[in-house]
Write a structure and sequence with these properties.
Order of helices and strands: EHEHEHEHHEHEHHEHEH
Largest sheet: 8 strands, parallel
Structural class: alpha/beta
Radius of gyration: 18 Å
Helix content: 25-40%
CATH superfamily: Ureohydrolase domain
Shape: globular
Number of domains: 1
CATH class: Alpha Beta
Oligomer: single chain
Length: 319
């Protein structure tokens, strides 16, 4: 039984193609201060040591940029999440780029090694590339593939060297050996910007994606209820919220890879709250706020904070 919330602040952006998401957490804190909200004074927190200085290193492999440093970062985050859960705290993870999700999922699995871990992935992107299929080499597009231990070699486009291959194998074995999650334990919300290798992999693994249009057509509550039933066999659930799941034209371009025609903030809040009220969620993560790219001031961080504040109130009710 989880008894209290603990914030894990992971100011890392080395898995992204654009710098600046490492400042996202501070931008969210500033949003709280400007609203005269004492949110960040209410909870115990820990700052995760980062590898951000590695952005100055020469990139040795364009198919998995800074993979050695991302591996180190994910191991650190995994350990923090595992210990937080073992101490009966509910981790709310605030991260820079989305490569962190591998560390978080690995930490959840390490804390619950015999349990079925479910993943709710609220994102414009599927993040199911591997070094073998990625067109960019940015590891924030790979965390789910590593957590699933899926290389998708059927659609390989890159010749990956031995060092990168070995580091990728180590990424797939963070926390505990082998896959952290099964494909049937993953549900997407809002994915709408993918490449062919990802589309084929999603189809092969039969991962359900609740699109923005489907949710608006069928009804949000009904779709989320269905998703909860899909993950009914899972013992614990982790929610990953990438702010680019929201509509960049409506909200803000303050994120590394903005995509139009996404959710509004009420929709993502409701999706998360409905899952939390089902009482299996043990960890949530917020990622990819990039204030350097925000053309409206600090609007993306302000919006993310509103979601965070409302979701946290729901978490508190379930503890």
């Amino acid at each position: 039984m989880l008894e209290a919330i603990k914030l894990i602040k992971n100011r890392s952006d080395i898995g992204a193609g654009t710098r600046g998401s490492d400042m996202g957490i501070d931008a969210i804190e500033i949003a709280a201060i400007n609203k005269q909200n004492n949110y960040f004074e209410q909870f115990e927190f820990v700052d995760v040591l980062t590898e951000n200085e590695s952005i100055y290193n020469k990139v040795n492999n364009s198919f998995a940029k800074r993979i050695d440093n991302v591996l180190t970062q994910c191991v650190r985050l995994s350990n923090h999440v595992k210990v937080t859960l073992q101490e009966h705290h509910f981790p709310i993870v605030l991260s820079g780029d989305h490569s962190s999700a591998l560390g978080t999922i690995s930490g959840v699995k390490a804390a619950y090694p015999k349990e079925n871990v479910g993943v709710v992935w609220i994102d414009a992107h599927a993040d199911i590339h591997s070094p073998y299929t990625s067109p960019s080499g940015n590891i924030h597009g790979m965390p789910l593939a590593a957590a699933l231990s899926e290389d998708n070699l059927e659609y390989q486009i890159n010749e990956v060297n031995r060092e990168t291959s070995e580091l990728w194998e180590r990424m797939k074995n963070i926390g505990i050996l082998g896959p952290k999650i099964a494909p049937e334990n993953v549900v997407y919300f809002g994915v709408r910007d993918t490449e062919e290798p990802e589309d084929k992999q999603i189809e092969k693994l039969n991962i359900k994606n609740y699109t923005v249009s489907e949710i608006r057509y069928r009804g949000l509550e009904k779709c989320v209820k269905e998703a909860i039933e899909k993950l009914a066999h899972c013992d614990v659930i982790y929610i990953s919220f990438d702010v680019d799941s929201m509509d960049c034209d409506m909200i803000s371009y303050g994120t590394g890879t903005p995509v139009a025609k996404g959710f509004d903030q009420q929709e993502v809040t409701q999706i998360m709250q409905q899952f939390i009220e089902a009482k299996k969620v043990v960890c949530v993560e917020f990622v990819e706020v990039n204030p350097l790219l925000d053309l409206k001031g600090n609007v993306m961080a302000e919006t993310a904070f509103e979601v965070l504040d409302n979701v946290t109130k729901t978490i508190r009710k379930t503890l």
